[in-house]
Amino acid sequence: MRRLFHHWLYPGARLARLVLGEKGLEAELRVVTPWLRDEAFLALNPAGEVPVLVEDSGAVIAGTQAVAEYLDEMHPDPPLLGADPVVRAEVRRLVAWFDTGFRREVTEPLVGQKLALRLMGNGTPDSRALRAGRANLGTHLSYIAWLTEANRWLAGNRLTLADLMAGAHLSLVDYAGDVPWEDHPAAKDWYMVLKSRPCFRTLLADSEPGLRPVKHYADLDF
Questions:
Q1: For a tag site, which of 135, 138, 167, 174 has the least CB within 10 Å?
Q2: How far is Cα 148 from Cα 144, in angstroms, rounded to an integer?
Q3: Tell me, what DSSP letter sits at residue 213?
Q4: Are residue 102 and residue 173 in the same domain, yes or no?
Q5: Is 144 helix (H, G, I), strand (E, B) or coil?
Q6: Which DSSP symbol is given to 181?
Q7: Is 147 in the same domain as 179?
Q8: Which domain holds residue 122?
Q9: Which residue in 140, 164, 142 sits closest to 153, CA to CA?
């Protein structure tokens, strides 16, 4: 059976789990701790980052976008990258948007300060970073609302990797209890439909002892 090396705190690893679920593919989930040096894991990916997918054949695919696009190419039903070059370009743009801009402006300040520091036992949260992350989050939620004004999903009328990447990040921010959903009803409606999909079930079951999610985290109706 294929193996996915992951950690629940990493959005890229969450994206890989969502893609596997959306494709109906089985994989043995192996948790690794990227901030601890593991020689066996480094032999698979010298960068020491998750996700890493290992196929039955021994093929190793490492990296967020590489794993997601590999799975979509190898298992094209349902298609998650897009049906034509224009859509694929937009999906890739949005995947990069959420995994660079959103990560830098929201995920790292909020999830990094509220969850990662506690998990690693490494200091106390920086209140300035938390304030900045919350302010930035509002801008991104407004952008999600704008994207879904004309279409059902972020890159068009079909679910794509763009939605799953955004959901991977937002699910972590929501775990920490920092998403003001009531102030952004359009973004809330989009996320409610997304997290109701079967592929989200394993993410909504995530829970770290001593680091519990907010009460509504796994509630499909908030």
A1: 135
A2: 6
A3: P
A4: yes
A5: helix
A6: G
A7: yes
A8: 85-204
A9: 164
- How many domains are contained in the chain? 2
32 with 53: CB under 8 angstroms? Answer: no
Check whether 73 has a pLDDT greater than 90: yes
Instruction: Tell me the C-alpha distance between 173 and 156, whole Å.
Output: 24
Sole residue written with tokens 């991104």: 140
Structure confidence at residue 121 (pLDDT): 78
Largest CA distance in the chain: 48
Quick check: pTM over 0.85?
yes
Q: Which two tokens stand for residue 164?
A: 């799953």
Measured CA to CA, the distance from residue 21 to residue 54 in angstroms comes to 16
Q: Is the pLDDT of residue 123 over 80?
A: no
- Determine contact, residues 105/136, Cβ cutoff 8 Å: yes
Q: What tokens appear for 42 in the block? A: 């480094």
Mean model confidence pLDDT for the chain: 95
Per-residue pLDDT reduced to its tens digit, 153-185: 999 999 999 999 999 999 999 999 999 999 999
Sheet holding 3-6, edge to edge: 28-31, 3-6, 52-54, 60-62
Per-residue b or e along 25-55, where b marks 16 or more CB atoms closer than 10 Å to that residue's CB: eebeeeebebeeeeeebeebbeebbbbbbbe
